[in-house]
Design a protein that fits this description.
about 375 residues; alpha+beta; Urate Oxidase; 2 domains; nine-stranded mixed sheet; about 30% helix; about 30% strand; disordered N terminus
């Protein structure tokens, strides 16, 4: 059965008449509706379309049409299920707090404290809230928003421009975006004068509800933690029995998340400096023998339990007027035990929560 009226010409249509291609596209859209929403199709008198077999629509072209270029009318005829009627919603008609994309990668310039910019491979997570009566969102609009600004150095102001852009495009009230990257800083060794690049896992997060925007920075600070108890026991063995012993220490990670107050600019370099002032035993990049000895002395002068770590960082962050709410998560990946020692300290409502991701602490294992 040929569903296309013979009066429709395949090439040049009469005035006001659709082309054959337009009619076939419309037929395909109606057939999809008949299959997906029989009740609506029946109300429109289209139920019979669901029974149309492919062979009844004429022979299908199996070769890729390299010369085909869709015009505006053809694009308008294409089905868009994500923006379909509420009747197409599957499951509960409930508001979705966040829907969007994760780990969309592109190179972005990140502003530095010195006034320049460094281009870094960046992982983007972008999402919006979705009203209970809406089927879905066009996720590519989030990516297109970033590409419209991809040539600009990014800071929080640039991120919020993108955030507003795709929130408006998707007609949503709430939106958020997170940029994740590894930020390089040239670090000098303790005594030899050598220099090397330390990479900091960093994320910029911006959240907007249309009235207020929150700026949040996340940073992983990697340091060495010497156990105070183990240090005292090693010294006891040396003094009491002339027995050489070494205290245990291990690579440790503090994930610091801070909400900015807007009272001055907080740079990545500034947050690293606050962490280093609280816990000076940051792992080293380039070392000679004198640096290794210096690091042993530095650890001996700064033994630290995981409880000490979060409290020292709390003190440093709380004294900075650029920082409002914050959270510190520390993990000491024990060399003595077969398990890790962990601690969480938060200040303010932004990061207050009762339940945590079951794999939270696993994500703190530092990947070199």
């Amino acid at each position: 059965m040929n569903m296309i009226p013979a009066a429709i010409r395949p090439d040049e249509p009469e005035d006001g008449a659709p082309t054959r291609a337009e009619a076939e596209a419309a037929l395909w859209t109606l057939k999809r509706l008949a299959e997906a929403a029989p009740a609506e199709a029946a109300a429109l008198g289209l139920s019979a379309l669901a029974a149309v077999r492919p062979e009844e629509q004429g022979a299908l072209n199996r070769a890729y049409p390299e010369d085909f270029s869709p015009d505006a009318a053809y694009k308008a005829s294409m089905p868009d299920l994500q923006n379909g009627e509420a009747s197409l919603i599957r499951g509960a008609r409930a508001e979705i707090q966040h829907v969007g994309i994760s780990n969309f990668r592109l190179p972005l310039g990140v502003r530095t404290r010195e006034g320049g910019a460094v281009t870094l491979e960046t992982s983007v997570t972008g999402s919006v809230s979705l009203d209970a009566q809406k089927k879905g969102i066009n996720m590519s609009r989030i990516m297109r928003s970033f590409y419209r600004h991809a040539g600009e150095p990014f800071d929080f102001a640039a991120i919020e421009t993108v955030l507003d852009s795709y929130r408006d495009d998707l007609e949503s009230m709430d939106a958020r975006v997170m940029l994740r990257f590894r930020y390089p800083m040239l670090i000098r060794s303790l005594r030899s004068g050598l220099e090397g690049y330390q990479y900091y896992d960093t994320a910029f997060e911006s959240l907007s509800d249309g009235r207020e925007t929150a700026r949040i920075m996340h940073l992983d600070y990697v340091y060495s933690s010497t156990c105070p108890c183990s240090l005292e026991l090693a010294e006891h063995a040396r003094v009491a029995r002339a027995q050489i012993a070494t205290p245990h220490s291990q690579r440790s990670v503090a994930r610091v998340s801070v909400r900015m107050t807007g009272e001055g600019t907080l740079w990545i370099e500034d947050l690293v400096g606050l962490c280093r002032s609280a816990i000076p035993t940051e792992t080293q990049v380039m070392v000679k023998r004198e640096d290794e000895q210096a690091f042993a002395e530095l650890n001996g002068a700064n033994p630290i339990f995981v409880e000490d770590a979060v409290r020292l960082l709390c003190e440093a962050l709380g004294d900075d007027r650029r920082i409002g709410d914050f959270r510190v998560i520390a993990s000491h990946q024990e060399s003595l035990h077969s398990h890790d020692a962990v601690s969480i300290l938060s200040h303010g409502p932004t990061f207050a929560q009762e339940s945590y991701d079951p794999r939270l602490f696993e994500s703190l294992h530092h990947a070199t």
